[in-house]
Specification:
By secondary structure, the chain is of the alpha/beta class. The chain is built from 6 helices and 9 strands, in the order αβαβαββββαααβββ. It is globular and about 55 Å long.
Length: 201
């Protein structure tokens, strides 16, 4: 969602910018080969890449290239999750326009297949996708969705230690994700030491 020049990106980082929000999403169909805003943001180590890895916003090869260039420590996973997530395939009327969830799980403005209207898949699927797309391990992928965003925002990084918030997500790593890779099946969520949700057994 930008048309910034490489110089403007450099100036933004000089002024304190630290995040490339939704990197690669909403990009122009044609970009200059070398001097473009994607390369400038990927190359700048001061910028953390925010990636929507739902299998629709960014192609797998671009996710792999960004994660390899930036390294997982300078990437965070973003859900871009819409309020229509989890609903069945079909059309839904909003105040602004009609939306459609396609059979692939892609959420679009109704009547076409390219203009996205957010994401319909939860972040736990993005964790499985980034493992598959970028060839990284579970720990690195989970950090991209939890520890790295907390650090970037200056929040406490929860850890299993005395005095830390007892907030956990219990999941099982399985095969058969939406894009053919790993899938995280959430079994239980715990907040403040209490079970907030549990999957039916």
């Amino acid at each position: 969602h930008t048309a910034a020049t490489a110089r403007q990106i450099d100036e933004a980082a000089d002024a304190g910018a630290t995040m490339s929000t939704h990197l690669g999403n909403g990009s122009h169909p044609l970009l200059p080969r070398h001097e473009n805003y994607l390369w400038a943001q990927i190359a700048d180590d001061r910028l953390t890449a925010g990636l929507i890895v739902d299998g629709h916003h960014l192609p797998r090869h671009l996710v792999k290239a960004i994660v390899r260039a930036k390294q997982p420590g300078r990437c965070v996973l973003v859900s871009d999750l819409s309020g229509y997530a989890g609903l069945p395939v079909g059309r839904y009327q909003t105040e602004l326009c009609e939306l459609e969830i396609l059979a692939t799980g892609k959420l679009v403005v109704a009547g076409q297949e390219e203009l996205l209207a957010g994401a319909s898949r939860p972040l736990c699927e993005g964790i499985g996708n980034v493992m598959d797309f970028a060839g990284i391990g579970l720990a690195a992928a989970v950090d991209m969705a939890t520890r790295r965003p907390a650090e970037l925002l200056g929040l406490e990084v929860a850890a299993p230690r005395t005095g830390s918030a007892a907030d956990f997500v219990v999941f099982e790593l399985a095969e058969g994700g939406a894009e053919g890779g790993a899938r995280l099946d959430v079994k239980r969520t715990i907040g403040g030491g209490e079970v907030l949700w549990q999957a039916a057994s």
